[in-house]
Amino acid sequence: SDSLNGEVKPRILLMGMRRSGKSSIQKVVFHKMSPNETLFLESTNKICREDVSSSSFVSFQIWDFPGQIDFFDPTFDYEMIFRGTGALIFVIDSQDDYVEALSRLHLTVTRAYKVNPEINFEVFIHKVDGLSDDNKIEKQRDIQKRASDDLADAALEHIHLSFYLTSIYDHSIFEAFSKVVQKLIPQLPTLENLLNIFISNSGIEKAFLFDVVSKINIATDSSPVDMQTYELCCDMIDVVIDISCIYGLTDSEAGLPYDEESMAIIHLNNTTVMYLKEVTKFLAIVCFVRKESFERKAIQEVFDVRVEVQQNRELLSQRRWSKLTVTNGGPSNP
Ligand code: GDP
Fold it and tell me: Least enclosed by CB within 10 Å: which of 10, 24, 211, 225?
């Protein structure tokens, strides 16, 4: 759990042509900006914009491709950056002509692959909110084909690109980001297993692990997920953080009012109860429970942190005690 506490953060690079939507994605996903406000984001002339995301489980950086500046300038240490990068997200504006974007994508992918073949290449076909469903599929097919043809022409067809249709105006951007981040978490199978064990032993229907700041879904149990459930989780996180911001902050320097005491229970009108609880500095677990199960005592205890902590302490002291008795003469002499 140490690495989940932020020691080894997934590192992501966000790249693409200027005005493709990179800053908007960053602001909406990591800074709770509403999509309409991004219309007024100012264009920057910097090639590289750092974002350490110190309050999030994920750390990332943005790179622009402004027209004339030669991005592969020898003074720019891209090799070092590619070496430390887990995923490279390349944003393509689907509402604009994407010929140049595709040639930049090809250049970037081939350079990055040479430095670090372990990088996951993720292409966001972005701003699809303006397109009809048929048009979306058509655009994706076209972009995917051109990109793989370019790789095949360079005899690099073994480089794998993943494609996502995204927009900041719905949850697709959070969903795509979640998939990108999940691929970077080596403990994912373990986390999924733990969540499976957790739900099968507690009468909980579904459990999600979320990065609170970005609403990125880090892991979930292996039962199927629907978009609506996922959106409910995002809404609940927003509600909890908003209420905490208004009523929970005692020290104005403290940043996000989210700590080990953070928890919330919301009763939905369809006999489902939602439960949110802090797990680490960055992460929260969100569970769906049927009302009947929620009222049973066992579940109440799962959710009663004091009971849990107390039991853990007892367990720990028992372990210490038995270890001590063994070293002090064996179990025959307790
Ligand atoms: P950057 O230069 O790549 O950082 O691009 P910006 O984030 O500044 O975005 C450029 C413009 O695209 C802004 O006016 C945004 O409002 C708009 N934009 C960003 N994402 C979306 C999207 O998903 N849909 C639509 N329709 N517009 C978007």
Answer: 225
- Please name every residue paired with 273 in a beta bridge, in sequence order, or none if there are none: 267, 289
Query: Which long-range contacts does 75-78 make (Cβ < 8 Å, 24+ apart)?
Result: 76/47, 78/111, 78/112, 78/115
Residue 209: both structure tokens together = 């692990």
Residue written as token pair 């179990």? 331
Residues 6+ apart with CB under 8 A from 139: 94, 125, 128, 131
Probe target for ligand 1 pocket from 38, 100, 129, 175, with the most ligand atoms within 8 Å of CB:
38
pLDDT of residue 312: 56
Tokens in use for 312? 């853990």
- Answer left, alpha or beta for residue 211, where phi above 0 means left and psi between -120 and 50 means alpha: beta
The pLDDT value given to residue 31: 80
CB 212 within 8 A of CB 241: yes
Residue 62 CA: nearest ligand 1 atom is 4
- Residue the block writes with tokens 């309050």: 55
